[in-house]
């Protein structure tokens, strides 16, 4: 997220009017401020991992918020654990999409007769070949045993 916000607008945006460019910049800064309010200010190491070409930034000293505070203690602890491992600055530390799907927060939807409000859900386990190749090391774990049979 951060990398997308700190780099210059795409060329197509640069050719638009100055007002449109200003809106883009303002939105990017606003989004960055909201992220920093929750995650705190990224370290120099984290900035480098997200965007090696960026050399310096000046941010106010904002400490990260506890996820329990963000959700006012009303969120499932498993959801908080998933978010805390997914919404991080460092790409090396961030869970991949496949790793996120394997998180215990999603265990319930892997049950054979899982329903939402009494309604059966659509098939969640028919991954395309490309999706399975992308998540090759996790592919067998993404599909429940009962579905593989």
Give keywords:
mainly alpha, elongated, 149 residues, two-stranded antiparallel ribbon
Describe this entry's structure for a reader.
- The chain is an all-alpha fold.
- Helices cover 48% and strands 3% of the residues.
- A two-stranded antiparallel ribbon has the order 1-2.
- The longest helix has 22 residues, at 18-39.
- The radius of gyration is 20 Å and the shape is elongated.
- The model is unreliable at 1-9 (pLDDT under 50).
Low-confidence segments: 1-9
Q: Please tally the β strands and state the result.
A: 2
Order of helices and strands: HHHHHHHEEHHH
Estimate what percentage of residues fall within beta strands: under 5%
Helical content class = 40-55%
The secondary structure category is mainly alpha
Radius of gyration: 20 Å
User: What value does the average pLDDT take?
Assistant: 84
Task: Please report the distance between the alpha carbons of the first and last residues.
Answer: 39 Å
**How does the major sheet shape up?**
2 strands, antiparallel
Strand order of the largest sheet: 1-2
Shape: elongated
Please tally the helical runs, counting DSSP H or I stretches of 4 or more residues. Answer: 10
